Amino acid sequence: MQVYKFGGASLKDAENIRRAADIVKNTEDKELLIIISAIGKTTNALEQVTTKYFHKDEKAHELLEDIKTKHFDIIQQLFGNQYPEVYDDINNTFVEIEWVLEDEPQDTFDFIYDQIVSVGELLSSKIVSHYLNFIGITSRWIDARSYIQTDNTYREGRVDWVKTTELVQKSLPTVLTKEIAVTQGFIGNTSENFTTTLGREGSDFSASIFANCLDAKGVTVWKDVPGILNADPKLFDDTIKFEQISYTSAIEMTYYGASIIHPKTIKPLQVKKIPLYVKPFLTPNESGTVIKEEDIPETIPSIIVKKQQQLLTISSKDYSFISERHLKVIFEAFAAVNIHANMMQISALGFTVCFNQDDQKSARFNEMLNNQFNLSYKSDLELITIKNANSETIKKHIDFGRVELEQRSKKDVQFVVS
Ligand SMILES: Nc1ncnc2c1ncn2[C@@H]1O[C@H](COP(=O)(O)OP(=O)(O)O)[C@@H](O)[C@H]1O
Ligand SMILES: N[C@@H](CC(=O)OP(=O)(O)O)C(=O)O
């Protein structure tokens, strides 16, 4: 059996949902599990609804209404007035969120976020599943929350692999022998039955979780690019496509911030030696890139840019050097507020960390440590990593006048630049 994943960039409108259905129609292996992300930029829009609602701003209703209009426009274009089931189903899904918005916010931001933002994937997967049935491809909509079990780290749910594997293996293989199944990426469920999300762009990871549990033959993520390139084509011209890369190289690229695939996607596939195909959604017959278990020599430099980075320099109040005792306190605070360090450096002046800018997390970190340390922040920076670097590429892409921090290893170089 195969796992397909269609992301929001591909499923951005009615025309592209038709294209996705065509891809499914032309697939030979009919034992197929399809993972769907929220349509277009719906997740960003639902994030805004959550923020407004949390701050008791009436604009939340208006923003939700915009999302509703966009979804019903797509449904109208796909189904006309011929398929009342889809209108009822989507309407009922919106009603659940409208009820949430009627009440005063009682819970933490992260909990509310997951209950609201997860709806993007529920809506899109329902539309795609209904559309496949509408055009004669029998499909069953399944709720990913009945399978993917997580802890209660809202917005970053950690997968309970034992429970998830058990649930998937108990019933999903039988479903898949009978019909194509359509489910949601990005979302999971706690043992108390509350919805969690797996982290932004987590649908690729969902595909890989299902594939691992089902021992799938392969996973295909359909993207709006020809495959994995040596740089993001939105930021660089003259990119080169990789025909194949190893799991290790893909893990490194995603770890450094290549946003083409969610960083947690590769490991569950690597342990089962399941190939991951990154294929172009608009030209599905082209080869794309395959990620697999092989020692594939790499010579082409790859450039990875991570934007919206923050640099935090921590020094002790008495200007003594940062010691192991200090580092213990600092790392405990990072873990407590869920800050992940992208780059770190220790010097006579203090300890410097580069991480993804998140004002809420920084504020919480500040509250915990500003009594004990001097904390100084620089914002809106970029972390540029060059994998398989050579001096020519470094010279071409790095303006040394803007470098705030740098680190070099045997093959890779990293610069934090303003
Ligand atoms: N190395 C890379 N190769 C190809 N695309 C990349 C790379 N790095 C970043 N990207 C970006 O990843 C985007 C596709 O990922 P994403 O938008 O998350 O897709 P989806 O929503 O379908 O999951 C592309 O549009 C491209 O701009
Ligand atoms: N919709 C979620 C999950 C996701 O993975 O989306 P996409 O496949 O479009 O990157 C997000 O935008 O974060």
From TrEMBL:
InterPro entries named in the record: AceGlu_kinase-like_sf, ACT-like_dom_sf, Asp/Glu/Uridylate_kinase, Asp_kinase, AsparK_Bifunc_asparK/hSer_DH
Gene Ontology MF terms: aspartate kinase activity
Keyword Flavoprotein: no
UniProt entry tagged with the keyword Kinase: yes
Catalytic activity: L-aspartate + ATP = 4-phospho-L-aspartate + ADP
Keywords from the UniProt entry: Amino-acid biosynthesis, ATP-binding, Kinase, Nucleotide-binding, Transferase
EC number: 2.7.2.4
Uppermost EC category: transferase
Pathway given in the UniProt record: Amino-acid biosynthesis; L-methionine biosynthesis via de novo pathway; L-homoserine from L-aspartate: step 1/3; Amino-acid biosynthesis; L-lysine biosynthesis via DAP pathway; (S)-tetrahydrodipicolinate from L-aspartate: step 1/4; Amino-acid biosynthesis; L-threonine biosynthesis; L-threonine from L-aspartate: step 1/5
Pfam families in alphabetical order: AA_kinase
Superkingdom, taxonomy of origin: Bacteria
Residues in Aspartate/glutamate/uridylate kinase domain copies: 2-279
SUPFAM superfamilies: ACT-like, Carbamate kinase-like
Stated family: Belongs to the aspartokinase family.
Alphabetical list of NCBIfam families matching this protein: asp_kinases
Protein name: Aspartokinase
UniProt source species: Pseudopedobacter beijingensis
Lineage: Bacteria, Pseudomonadati, Bacteroidota, Sphingobacteriia, Sphingobacteriales
